[in-house]
User: Fold this.
Amino acid sequence: MADKTFDQLPASEQEDFRNCLDADLAPEMFKVTFREELVGDGEIKFIERAITVQFGVVSREYDGGNGTHRTVDFEDDVKMHVFA
Assistant:
């Protein structure tokens, strides 16, 4: 499965990412990619999304999509200066 770019994320998730940047880090400083996979049994299927955020040599992966805490986890990493 090919990685997709930040611009291919749903608009709401792009905005969530930008809202997390309260540490004087511009969104352009990050490389954001993601992978999606349709999972589930029978007629019940859902999309699992893995979002990778890279800042220089630092790379973190977050679960994405509905019902995840990706933005909270990312914001915690920013506050802890993981990307500094």
In short: The CA atoms of residues 5 and 23 lie 23 Å apart. The first helix runs from residue 11 to 19. Helices lie at 11-19, 70-79. The chain has a mean pLDDT of 84.
